[in-house]
Amino acid sequence: MRRIGYNKAMRAIIWILAGFLFVCGWSQTADYTGYQVLRITVEHPKQFEQIQTLVRDVWSCSLKGRTIDVCASPEERAALQKAGFTWQTLIEDVQALIESQRSDYQPQGDLFSRYLTLDEVYAAMRTLAEQNPRLVQMLQVGISVEGRPIYALRITRDPRGARVYRDRPQVVFNACQHAREWITVSVALYLAYALVASYGVDTRVTQWLQRTEVYVVPVVNPDGYVYTWTTNRLWRKNRRYLGTNNWGQPIYGVDLNRNWGFQWGGQGSSGQRSSETYRGPAPFSEPETYTLSRWLLSLPTLRAHVDIHSYSQLIMWPWGYTDALCYHHATFERIGLIMQQQIQSVHGMFYAAGPIYTTIYPASGNMCDWVYGVRGALSFGYELRDTGQYGFLLPPDQILPNSEEFYPAALTLIEWMTTRRWD
Ligand SMILES: [Zn+2]
Q: Of 84, 101, 118, which marks where a domain is finished?
């Protein structure tokens, strides 16, 4: 009898524990209650560094405009105030904005009226390839630290006719190195869909796709992207486990866009594991950057590349590691200004153009520097919408207009690479 009572008690304890774990597991979804996004005005360049010691999460920056956007907790705001900083509040209640957009997570509407989960992105890529076998091929071009595939769409006439066409220049577009930049995934996918829809309809696009190969990689950081859907909407880095901190808490994530193997480890990257710009223990320490770099090296005729980020509305090019101008600066600027006009002509949006270092911030070990400096292709870095009103939490009704304005800019680059030489 006593034994049964003991078992019953044990069972009750196990159920209570299970319930407790369930509740804890549930509450591990990141909570941004009390957080605000601030635009801080900076008097002196040295203060950029000071601010980064007071606030963990920098959202954007403008060296020229002397402003920095940060996502700050009440404690961090108090520290900023104490240090004498003043700001404009961009987002009053970060948690409320995240929650207000959560209803949009439900599957509904078409491909570009809402953001897509990783499974939905990969399904949409597969559908496009299956329905257009003579124009589109889906390839795995990399792998993530948690083992997820990184896929590309190869868009060119008769992609299955040859593994490589040595007479066709190659242009690569990739997005979402940073997990929380959801808009970049949709804009990249739109580019692929629009190219396919224009083939056989628009004479110029048809000709370019007969003579050029376009690759689109919508999600470079699939683990981080999944994590932004399941657990923390504002996650930036990949999901590498990095051990524990002094309090025994686990630390995750390398900033993929500081992990590329050209001028790795310099200004604008961090050696601190918990930093949002942690560069990793070595160049290409991460499978995402390593496998993607091997793939880019395997493309024999790669001529141009675009790495798509958000936000701030910028068109940029190397260098990110130094303020010195790169050798092809004039070419970059010429193409960049045409793209700027193309964008503006669609919905009137202005994108500032210039080198990474002076236009946004120093960023050693970024992808554009490697693609240009090592791989030898013209490489642009884009920051999509907006200029700070919503930042990474861009409402889904801007997916379509943002895609529509990016598309002609992408066509400009494809045309240039099809019809001219730049070197
Ligand atoms: Zn980014």
A: 101
Is 9 inside any structural domain? no
Q: Is 276 annotated in the active site? A: no
Helices 399-419 and 329-347: crossing angle in degrees, nearest 10, is 140
Report the pLDDT value the prediction gives residue 13, as an integer from 0 to 100. Answer: 55
Q: Note whether 152 and 139 are within 8 A (CB).
A: yes
| Given 76, 288, 383, 405, the catalytic residue | 383
Residue pLDDT, tens place only, 237-292:
999 999 999 999 999 999 999 999 999 999 999 999 999 999 999 999 999 999 99
Domains in the chain: how many in total? 2
Tokens of 40: 């801080």
The pTM for the full model equals: 0.91
State both tokens at 220.
Answer: 């470079």
Residue 415: closest CA among 337, 298, 303: 303
Structural domain span for residue 201:
109-229+276-419
Q: Which of 80, 101, 122 is the last residue of a domain?
A: 101
Task: Please give the distance, rounded to the nearest whole angstrom, from the Cα atom of residue 361 to the centre of ligand 1.
Answer: 12
